[in-house]
Each structure stands twice: as C-alpha cells, then as structure tokens.
C-alpha cells in the first residue's frame, strides 16, 4: 500500500516526469501507464481501488503499486530520487557508471 501521496498540481513539474519515467523503467512498465502512475501518486485514483487477482498477468497491480511507491519515495527524498534516476539509465554511460560504483564499493570493503 502507498503510505502518502505527492501534492496535486505537480503534474506539469518536469521533476515528476523524470521520477515517473525512471520508476516505470525500474518496474518494467510501458510508457502508456504514465498517466495512471501519476494519478495514483497524486491520489486522484485511490490506491485501494487496485487489487491483484493472482493470475500472473503483466503488468501486475503489485508492479504498478511498487512503481507508485518509488515515485512517492523519490518525491520526498532527493537522495533516493537521484539514485532512482541513475539506476534507470539504460545507456552505455549509465551502465558504466553503475559498474564503476560497484567496483569501487567492493575495493573499499
């Protein structure tokens, strides 16, 4: 379940769009789900209106709820926002950065 929502009226904020796209990439959701994710994150669609049927469909309601949870968390926490956007970067440069950070963490231990 989603604990809180982002403020309504932020739909036009470019920061929200970047967060939503990154969270959708992480959740494996198609771009057509963007308006639904935004409506859930702002509370226009109640989170309890979605139920998992257990059939194994894709995308599952649980995938959508995890995505919305990431959006809300990133909106409230700039550090998490930066990590989310960086981790969703599928370019070669983004992958190289993630690998370099992982290698530095392992060398530091």
Short description:
The protein is mainly alpha-helical and 109 residues long. Helices cover 61% and strands 0% of the residues. It has one domain (14-108).
Would you spell out the secondary-structure blueprint of this structure?
Elements: H1 14-27, H2 34-42, H3 61-76, H4 78-87, H5 92-108
Helix pairs in contact: 1-3, 1-4, 2-3, 3-4
Return the string of H and E elements: HHHHH
- Outline: globular
- Looking at how many chains there are and whether they match, the oligomeric state comes to single chain
How does the major sheet shape up?
none
Characterization of the model:
The structure is a single chain. This protein has 109 residues and is mainly α. It has helices spanning 14-27, 34-42, 61-76, 78-87, 92-108. The chain has one domain (14-108). Helix content is 61%, strand content 0%. Helix 1 (14-27) crosses helix 4 and helix 3 (61-76) packs across helix 4. The mean pLDDT is 87.
């Amino acid at each position: 379940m989603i604990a809180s929502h982002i403020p309504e009226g932020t739909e036009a904020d470019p920061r929200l769009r970047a967060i939503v796209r990154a969270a959708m990439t992480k959740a494996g959701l198609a771009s057509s789900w963007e308006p639904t994710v935004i409506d859930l994150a702002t509370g226009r669609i109640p989170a309890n209106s979605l139920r998992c049927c257990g059939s194994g469909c894709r995308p599952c309601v649980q995938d959508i709820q995890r995505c919305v949870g990431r959006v809300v968390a990133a909106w409230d926490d700039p550090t998490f926002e930066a990590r989310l956007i960086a981790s969703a970067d599928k370019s070669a440069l983004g992958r190289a950065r993630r690998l370099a950070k992982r290698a530095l963490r392992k060398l530091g231990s």
